[in-house]
Amino acid sequence: MLPRRSRKPGSDGAATHPQAVRLASLALLAKRDFAAGELRERLRLHGFDDAAVAAAIAELTTEGVLDDERYAHNYVAYHAGRGQGPVRIAAALRQGGVDAVVIAAALASGPDWRALARQVCRAKFGAQPAASWAQKARRARFLQYRGFSADHIRAATGVDAGPD
Questions:
Q1: Quick one: CA torsion of 144, 146, 147, 152, rounded to 10 degrees?
Q2: Is 22 part of a structural domain of the chain?
Q3: Does position 5 have pLDDT exceeding 70, yes or no?
Q4: Global confidence as pTM
């Protein structure tokens, strides 16, 4: 039986070739948008050289093909539309390697987070207000899991922050 030829980029010297890295980057970007850090990690997993990856990402960024600000704004719009809150969205963007300043700007241009928390709570639990503290706590845990801050949760559940 003949040995199988490896098709990994690093097996035939293509790992350092700039054109191979660029083509792989464009192939990945054709499927979906990536943050620069996320694309860098994906290319490294494919076996490309770090220097070649950095050069390709710099080139794609100057051409406008790769843009972290655009990615962050689109990510916020999409995930807010799915009912996720700013805490969860920011954590996912940080994990993708997006800069904190870009994340803050994207979240600021997002929807009214308090209104979104009320809408998500109403969609899950109905328009009826919570009758007991146990129901309010259940709603608060749900909104916390969705990524809303304590301030947004208080606005959505109607819990008074003051002492009793």
A1: -60
A2: yes
A3: no
A4: 0.81
